[in-house]
Write a structure and sequence with these properties.
Largest sheet: 7 strands, parallel
Strand order of the largest sheet: 3-2-1-4-7-8-9
Helix content: 40-55%
Bound molecules: nicotinamide-adenine-dinucleotide
Radius of gyration: 18 Å
CATH superfamily: NAD(P)-binding Rossmann-like Domain
CATH architecture: 3-Layer(aba) Sandwich
Number of domains: 1
Strand content: 15-25%
Structural class: alpha/beta
Shape: globular
Order of helices and strands: EHEHEHEEEHEHEHHHE
CATH class: Alpha Beta
């Protein structure tokens, strides 16, 4: 699919990878519906895309809230009159060990900490995909959905919630590629390694240095390197049901 004039929703696009993908796709002429919770950052992202000469609009929406997602997708379709793409990018971290033993006491990972990540990183992907795919079928727009998984899907210590959600997102990519192909909808995923965004900046500098040393390419990735992978999935009409791993070789 050529990106020029295609209408694409990007969730979590106020900053980080979502923002980089928005700017990258706007440079290729896509029209963008940008979703986030943070109005100021969202407006900055919209302005950056508009500066590249494309139509871009902001939508405040919590991807984990069914009614908000339904309303937002309806609104995007009404505003643009078409819908060709979705990037399920919004995500959060709430790391913690399943059990931590300190001074003879066992501290358990709270259910709320588990659930917060599952709600945004997994249920949010389900809700956005369901609503967008239904709208694509209704509007007879052949479309493409890109999920953002993670290298953490292989299982990271301290990330029960996040690893589970990102592994599920990779497997849903296969399920939905099979289910939606008959409607002309392709579904792919990108599994980034460690990329230099605020999410990773929250790690301690020593931990980051150690991490980079263990990556064959010896550095963190750049947001732009994930954005170009997402663009590849949109533009290659024979790509579906697969996860592109863009991680500097960290799992080799
Ligand atoms: P980030 O924290 O910099 O940005 C995430 C954005 O999502 C923020 O703008 C935030 O406001 C928005 N958001 C959070 N919860 C939301 C919700 N409920 N509804 C709508 N928007 C919401 O994160 P990032 O590093 O840019 O990561 C983006 C995606 O890439 C995430 O899914 C993350 O898990 C994944 N990822 C990131 C890395 C990395 O190294 N940065 C690696 C692998 C995967």
């Amino acid at each position: 699919m050529h990106l020029k004039d295609k209408v694409i929703i990007i969730t979590g696009s106020g900053q980080g990878l979502g923002r980089a993908m928005a700017e990258h796709l706007s440079c290729r002429g896509a029209k963008l519906a940008l979703i986030d919770l943070n109005p100021e950052k969202l407006q900055e992202a919209v302005s950056a895309c508009q500066a590249n000469g494309v139509e871009a609009r902001a939508y405040i929406c919590n991807v984990a809230d069914e009614a908000q997602v339904e309303r937002t997708v309806q609104q995007v379709a009404a505003d643009f009159g078409a819908l060709h793409g979705l990037i399920n990018n919004a995500g959060i971290l709430r790391d913690g060990l399943l059990l931590k033993v300190k001074d003879g006491e066992i501290h358990k990972l709270p259910l709320a900490q588990w659930q917060a990540v599952i709600d945004v990183n997994l249920t949010g992907v389900f809700l956005c995909t369901r609503e967008v795919a239904a709208k694509m079928i209704e509007l007879q727009c052949a479309g493409t959905i890109v999920n953002i998984s993670s290298v953490s899907r292989a299982g990271n210590m301290g990330q029960s919630n996040y690893s589970a959600a990102k592994a599920a997102v990779a497997s849903l990519t296969v399920v939905w590629a099979k289910e939606l192909a008959r409607y002309g909808i392709r579904v792919g995923a990108v599994a980034p390694g460690f990329i230099g965004t605020d999410m990773v900046a929250s790690m301690k500098p020593e931990a980051l240095e150690k991490l980079a040393a263990g990556i064959p390419l010896k550095r963190l990735g750049q947001p732009e390197e994930i954005a170009s992978a997402a663009a590849f999935i949109f533009e290659n009409d024979y790509f579906t049901g697969r996860v592109l791993e863009v991680d500097g070789g960290i799992r080799l």
